[in-house]
Write a structure and sequence with these properties.
Layout: H1 3-27, H2 32-43, H3 48-59, H4 63-81, H5 83-106, H6 137-153, H7 158-174, H8 180-208
Length: 209
């Protein structure tokens, strides 16, 4: 294994450990006060214009739009890097959704819905009600897909795509749909999955030399 691959796998291990530690901490309700203070502080600075802006940001990571973006990315990666990275991205997305559902049935963290509600749109066509809120599926999908675009599709506009992915996470807090730890959990899980896809692209690039 090359040094670059070893470094990437070390980062995957570190991000996985951070996600596991955060998950356990959230499960034992050790960060409840932190969640309430940060989420309510952000919401206290709201206005109608921000309601619309943050609602639009959140809408970009709905399951419907995420699936369309996933399909386009899968085709792009297949044509540029081969079938393995493309299949890996698809599997990472599907695996992330399965992990999201599993954790939302296990980690006891009710969301803030009902306390704060600023979302200006109604529920989408794909809407599944789960018992708990951790981790944020919107943050997971946004960071995974925006990260893939930033790294392999539009690297010159990487800062823009990373910002857009992060903005979705902020919008989940502002709109009162998630706590801060929910968004952090979704972001960490996306980072792990994104780096796993990167191992396949890195292997493909190394083999092509």
């Amino acid at each position: 294994m090359r040094p670059a691959e070893q470094k990437l796998w070390r980062r995957i291990a570190l991000a996985t450990a951070c996600f596991a530690a955060l998950t356990v901490t959230v499960h034992v309700r050790a960060l409840d006060r932190f969640d309430h203070v940060t989420t309510i502080w952000l919401n206290a600075h709201g206005n109608r214009l921000l309601d619309w802006m943050m609602s639009i940001a959140t809408a970009t990571a709905t399951p419907e739009l995420s699936l369309l973006m996933l399909a386009a990315l899968t085709v792009f990666l297949w044509r540029r890097f081969g079938w393995r990275p493309a299949v890996c991205l698809f599997a990472a997305f599907a695996g992330g959704i399965l992990l999201e559902v599993a954790f939302k049935n296990w980690v006891v963290q009710p969301g803030p819905s009902g306390m704060i509600e600023r979302y200006v749109f109604g529920p989408g066509m794909i809407h599944v009600s789960l018992p708990y809120a951790y981790p944020s599926g919107h943050a997971l999908r946004a960071v995974l897909l925006a990260g893939a675009i930033a790294l392999w599709v539009m690297p010159r506009a990487a800062a823009l795509w990373w910002t857009l992915g992060g903005l979705v996470g902020v919008s989940r807090l502002y709109l009162g749909h998630h706590w801060t730890t929910d968004v952090l959990g979704g972001t960490l899980l996306a980072a792990v999955l994104l780096m796993i896809v990167a191992t396949q692209i890195q292997s493909r690039a190394t083999a092509a030399r």
